[in-house]
Design a protein that fits this description.
The chain is mostly helical. Helix content is 54%, strand content 0%. The chain has eleven helices and no strands. It has helices at residues 4-7, 25-33, 42-55, 60-73, 79-83, 87-94, 103-121, 126-131, 152-163, 171-180, 192-197. Helix 3 packs antiparallel against helix 7 (103-121). The longest helix is centred in the middle third of the chain and has 19 residues, at 103-121. The chain is globular.
Length: 198
Amino acid sequence: MPEPAEARAGVLAGAPARCFGDGDPLYEAYHDTEWGRPVHGEAALLERIALEGFQSGLAWITVLRKRPAFRELFHGFEPERVAAMTEADVEQLMGDARIIRNRAKIEATIANARAVVALHEDGTTLDELFWSFAPPPRAANPAPGEVPATTPESVAMAKALKKRGFRFFGPTTAYAAMQACGLVDDHLATCPVVLERA
């Protein structure tokens, strides 16, 4: 889950607070329409894995603001196109201030795309592998303080993807990706998204 402190920014008196993102229209839209909703498809999942990796050590809003450039420069996260990127492409990306210029994370994204292609060659998909770690649904949405940083499923996912050649994807990043892609529903019980379902 993105930073809890950001959830308190810009909250109107008496209005239920989002889990995060209040006060920034881009952040609010991401929270309300994307985060926690099921994501399927190779490019969509590769994008989420890549962006969660780029977010490590940074505020999620920083990644969101750079997302259009990431999509452009990483060819819409189409695995085959990203897998074909070369060292010259890495150097070009390192010079483009529109994205987060971290060589290890850029190289990990390309390596992860190659790992997706290898999955296909083995007769499976990232979608199948990723979603195989979805835990049973919770009986109720969590309260503040009840959201874990990792779970047994995220540890197992990180281990399995590492074995398949994925990089920059430890248990904490895996759990953040599980939250973002709807494998778990960590919208807080007090969040407007949850209250609107009632």
